[in-house]
């Protein structure tokens, strides 16, 4: 047999690649396929859009037997199977909606080896009848997509993922490939352990997504900030807006629609049909905003998401980073915006303590995350450092794009700690800040705050800055919340060094996405269109009009640059009201 006849030779695999319409492998694809066809276990960590599916698709087509692909979302599986079938690939999808007859056909298909890829959910795979069918079939390998679910709790959490260790027990030496869009060292270990991967090859792709502009802003009238952001920076583009609660997802989506921005919503509690329908509209129409919980986006096959906004804090940096990674998968410019404040940090900690009963590991992750948010300097550098990558300042985050002032808040921090000590940590943070600012609110009077020595002694910084400082003290574990009901704050060991000025607190000024009302786009559009109608002899294309609406140029020169139409032509026309201020 010559090398070329060997179905497992790289030449033959590359032939398949071109049949899939690709010229070259993306990073790690070739190494990953080589590992799999050599029968070795594999852990593949590559960002969303990194082309992980191709790894199991090509390997499956070259190996004997069926490749079993475990994937958490039905809608995505059916999408992928349809796509593969249309390319002539023998892929099938085993879901609970198959009737017994169809299940028999499938078992038969497997026995006759007429199926190359079988997609199913973890719960389906774990069903004894399904396990039974598969044990009597030749299985080439088992691929587990979104493998970080094994180590993750929260909205998108799938308890069945915890039981996938059975695969090794039931299938013995069949190679297993676990894939994930993001998994830090701890998560990787958990995946390897719970799947009993045997000396797996670990392939990890760089996490840097340079084309995504990372913006983290303090939250203040968040809905208006969101509207302002969409209208002024991403109008008409497709985007995802993440919120923590299902209710908020629904109300925010309705509100966006009322503001003239087409929006749909997605969370774990809507029917599979609605999920599929919303997914279809989102991926097929441009300019739709999907408001969603973290349940949305796993394996999303849509590359033109131009922005991802977080209205609340995700549980960890992994989740955050994976979620923003859904933007700009086509490699074109995209934006991420996270809005948060002290209250969000408290909510997250309370959720971990009281609702999620998070493990020590999870809590440590949460602290890592909030500490990175409060860190100084380039956002991306801080984040990638957490994933073990060293980079220079990125030039494409809010910190790099606008240098922010730094303030030494050591003395203010000492005042806060003294007040905490005097009041034994029983006052809420907002009351403490009011006391330091010298506000005689009802809550302050109730605790006779105006009689305290530190009353009005913290006026050198404003309330926003105080809140940032408290976030810093919490995230860096100078203080901790012992319990929320009744509220009890603790001073931790580390605080001593701060009280004696052995350590300093230096904060960088917060970034703010504006929340003022934007000139309603519909009005602007109307004026522009009626002006345009009257402009005899000049005709903008709808694309040019769209551009003008989005950018609202402030000068004729800017409008000319934007549209490519000569400035003297534009100037010939009577300017409409909105260009009254143009030069
Ligand atoms: P992931 O599962 O890692 O999120 P996908 O497998 O969905 O990523 O692939 C993301 C996109 O990249 C898809 O549109 C896919 O067609 C494309 N892609 C995959 N492999 C290649 C390749 N070798 N060359 C070009 N595009 C590719
Ligand atoms: Zn940066």
What does this molecule look like?
Helix 13 (317-324) links the parallel strand 12 and strand 13. With 583 residues, the chain is an alpha/beta fold. The chain has 26 helices and 17 strands. The protein has four domains: 3-204, P-loop containing nucleotide triphosphate hydrolases (Rossmann fold, 3-Layer(aba) Sandwich), CATH 3.40.50; 214-401, P-loop containing nucleotide triphosphate hydrolases (Rossmann fold, 3-Layer(aba) Sandwich), CATH 3.40.50; 406-508, Winged helix-like DNA-binding domain superfamily/Winged helix DNA-binding domain (Arc Repressor Mutant, subunit A); 519-581, no CATH class. Helix 14 runs antiparallel to helix 15 (360-373) and helix 19 (429-437) packs across helix 21. 40% of the residues are buried. It is 43% helix and 13% strand. The strands form four sheets. It has a seven-stranded parallel β-sheet, with helices on both faces. The protein binds adenosine-5'-diphosphate and zinc ion. Zinc ion is lined by residues 378-380, 393-394, 397, 399-400.
Produce a short descriptive summary.
This protein is 43% helix and 13% strand. It is an alpha/beta fold.
What's the topology here?
Layout: H1 10-19, H2 29-37, E1 42-45, H3 52-62, E2 66-70, H4 74-86, E3 91-94, H5 100-111, E4 117-120, H6 122-125, H7 128-135, E5 139-144, H8 166-171, E6 176-180, H9 185-194, E7 201-204, E8 212-218, H10 222-233, E9 239-242, H11 246-258, E10 263-266, H12 272-284, E11 289-292, E12 307-310, H13 317-324, E13 334-340, H14 342-355, H15 360-373, H16 379-386, H17 398-401, E14 406-408, H18 410-422, H19 429-437, H20 442-446, H21 463-475, E15 479-483, E16 488-491, H22 495-499, E17 506-508, H23 521-534, H24 542-551, H25 556-563, H26 567-571
Parallel strand pairs: 1-6, 1-7, 2-4, 2-5, 3-4, 5-6, 8-13, 9-11, 9-12, 10-11, 12-13
Antiparallel strand pairs: 14-17, 15-16
Bound molecules: adenosine-5'-diphosphate (ADP) and zinc ion.
